[in-house]
Structures are given as structure tokens and as C-alpha cells.
Amino acid sequence: MGKRRRGRDRVVTCVNCGRSVPRSKAMSYMKRTRYSTDLRNEENVSYVGGVEVYYCISCAKHYGIGEKKKKMAQRRREREYRV
């Protein structure tokens, strides 16, 4: 069973609709961001980062977040088999 917390889960807010959802029921998704100054010399500054956002089940189903996670997992498995 492990050291899982008993009782109330931590509550997170859905990014889309603002609904409060227990963290165990929410779908987490890594939203990627990329910033660049687009200069064509050595002073070009670029930043690539990510923020973990949470969606409630209904919004995740509507936007296909679960399907995206399945496709990403399939790609990861295919890469492992190729190597």
C-alpha cells in the first residue's frame, strides 16, 4: 500500500472551468512554454520550460487530454523498442 495519505486529498483548481477537484481525480498535464528573442546573433536568449496544470475529468474528456497522454505513452514505448 505504501505511504499514501489517508483521508482528504489535496484540492486543485481546474484550469479551464475553475472547479475544485481532489488531486487524485484530476488529470495533470504538462503545458510547455517557449520564449525566444529571435535575434540572429550570439545574444539570442531562449527559454523552454513547462508548467503542470490540472483539469477536471469533464474538461479533460472534452479537450482530449487523456487521449493525448495515451498517444504520448505509445510514442515513448515505440522509441524504447527501436533502441
Write a compact overview of the structure shown:
30% of the residues lie in helices and 31% in strands.
Number of helices: 2
Mean pLDDT: 84
Portion in beta strands = 25-35%
What number of domains?
A: 1
Radius of gyration of CA atoms, rounded to a whole number:
18 Å
Q: What is the first-to-last residue Cα distance? A: 34 Å
Helical content (DSSP H or I, runs of 4+):
25-40%
Tell me, briefly, the overall form. extended
* Helix/strand structural class: alpha+beta
Low-confidence stretches: none
* Beta strands, count: 4
How would you describe this structure to a colleague?
The protein has 83 residues and is of the alpha+beta class. The protein has one domain (11-82). The protein contains two helices and four strands. The strands form two sheets. A two-stranded antiparallel sheet has the order 1-2. It has a two-stranded antiparallel sheet with strand order 3-4. The protein is extended, with a radius of gyration of 18 Å. The chain starts with 10 loop residues before the first strand and ends with a helix.
Question: What attributes characterize this protein structure?
Answer:
83 residues; alpha+beta; two-stranded antiparallel ribbon; 2 helices; 4 strands; 30% helix; 31% strand; extended
Ordered list of secondary-structure elements with their pairings:
Elements: E1 11-13, E2 20-22, E3 27-36, E4 46-55, H1 57-63, H2 65-82
Antiparallel strand pairs: 1-2, 3-4
